[in-house]
Amino acid sequence: MAHRVIIVDDELLARKRIAELLRTRSEFQIEAECANGEEAVVQINQLAPDVLFLDVELKDLTGFDVLQQLTLQKLPLIVFITAYDNYAIQAFNNYALDFLLKPFKNNRFFETLDRIEERIRLNTNGTDIRKFLLEVQGGSPNPLASRLPIRENNRTVFVNKDRIKYICASSYYSDIYSIEKKYTVRESLKNLMPQLNAHKFIRIHRSTIINTDYMQELVHSDYNEMDVRMQDQELFRISKSYKKEFLQKLGLG
Question: pLDDT for 227-243, tens place per residue?
Answer without folding.
Answer: 999 999 999 999 999 99
